[in-house]
Write a structure and sequence with these properties.
With 324 residues, the chain is of the alpha/beta class. The chain has two domains: 2-120 and 265-319, Medium-chain alcohol dehydrogenases, catalytic domain (Quinone Oxidoreductase, Chain A, domain 1, Alpha-Beta Complex), CATH 3.90.180.10; 138-259, Rossmann fold, CATH 3.40.50. Helix content is 30%, strand content 26%. It contains nine helices and 16 strands. The radius of gyration is 20 Å and the shape is globular.
Length: 324
């Protein structure tokens, strides 16, 4: 098989398109010929050595994707050769072939293309748990969304607007402000503005919830809350979050909630139920596809460079063009 892999940590230049042995199919799994795989910031963190990795070098990134079953392991029932499946939490999928444990395999709606599925599964499931599990957002709530023009940010904004929440979006440029507004945000600010004061003024005292994927902005996100509000910290795209004063939290009855998707994708039943709800939400028009850029898997280093370019807004999908 071919794989986008790295043997040492560093920039996109450490990525190489390698020929590696195709693994045997273990019991309880199916082998999939990949068609499309999502690229996410977590893949960049892993390439840089800042995030948990599985296995030994050469390391293969990727966790979400779509493909066709080409082999079935011992003990597997209910899955057939030629069947199209998706997954959101299986490592090593930036390759032409991958073994998918059946508890992680997801049926996809016929109306959802391979590219579209690879573009929304991980980030859509993230947005879903943020507003339903980390906190419970209701109609009328004022909500702060960081990186609102990114993959999670765009879906999250659309889901919040569909629920009747008022979204105050944060982005890195004027161009991205317009993206956030087009997705239904009540207002959009850039990080260059005094956005805490802008939000406090616009909301008459602060938002009820903040969704912070940046990390280093955690204190500012807390400052933008009304008393009794909550920030969900679920990423570190800008760097590690600062230490927070417990005294400040106590005095204003504020809170910080940690968020990680893997907490909620903890069984086959949970994966299937959450995926079904996500696909229904897409089919009902509660959110649309983000802007999608595609790259051949062999050009994955260029895809990494684009994702790290702060001018990019949307989702990157890697395509397998190799033939068996």
């Amino acid at each position: 098989m071919q794989a986008l892999a790295f043997k040492e940590f560093g920039g996109p230049e450490v990525l190489h398109y390698l020929s590696l042995p195709t693994p045997a199919v273990p019991s309880g799994a199916v082998q999939v010929r990949m068609s499309a795989a999502g690229l996410n910031f977590a893949d960049i963190y892993r390439r840089k050595g800042n995030y948990v990795l599985h296995g030994t070098p050469p390391h293969i990134g990727g966790y979400e994707g779509v493909g066709t079953i080409i082999a079935v392991g011992e003990g597997v029932t209910g899955w057939q050769l030629g069947q199209r499946i998706g997954f959101a939490d299986v490592p090593f999928c930036h390759a032409t072939h991958i073994n998918v444990p059946v508890d992680h395999a997801l049926l996809l709606p016929d109306t959802l293309s391979d590219i579209a599925a690879a573009a929304i599964m991980l980030q859509g499931l993230t947005a879903q748990y943020l507003i339903n599990d980390s906190v419970q957002v209701a109609a009328g709530d004022a909500v702060l969304v960081h990186a609102a023009a990114g993959g999670v940010g765009q879906i999250l904004t659309r889901m919040l607007v569909a629920r009747g929440a008022q979204v105050y979006a944060l982005v890195s440029s004027a161009h991205k402000q317009q993206i956030a507004l087009n997705n239904g945000a009540t207002a959009a600010y850039t990080y260059q503005q005094d956005w805490v004061q802008e939000i406090l003024a616009a909301t008459a005292g602060g938002v009820r919830y903040g969704f912070d994927s940046v990390g280093i902005t955690l204190q500012q996100s807390l400052d933008a809350l009304r008393p009794g509000g909550r920030v969900v910290s679920f990423g570190m795209a800008g760097g590690e979050a600062p230490a927070i004063s417990a005294y400040q939290l106590m005095m204003d009855s504020k809170g910080v909630v940690g968020g990680d998707l893997w907490t909620y994708l903890n069984s086959g039943a949970a994966r299937r139920e959450r995926a079904q709800r996500l696909f229904a939400s897409w089919q009902n028009g509660e959110f649309g596809l983000p802007h999608i850029e595609t790259f051949p898997l062999s050009q994955g280093a260029d895809a990494h460079r684009l994702l790290e370019d702060r001018s990019f807004a949307g989702k990157i999908v890697l395509l397998n063009s190799e033939q068996d």
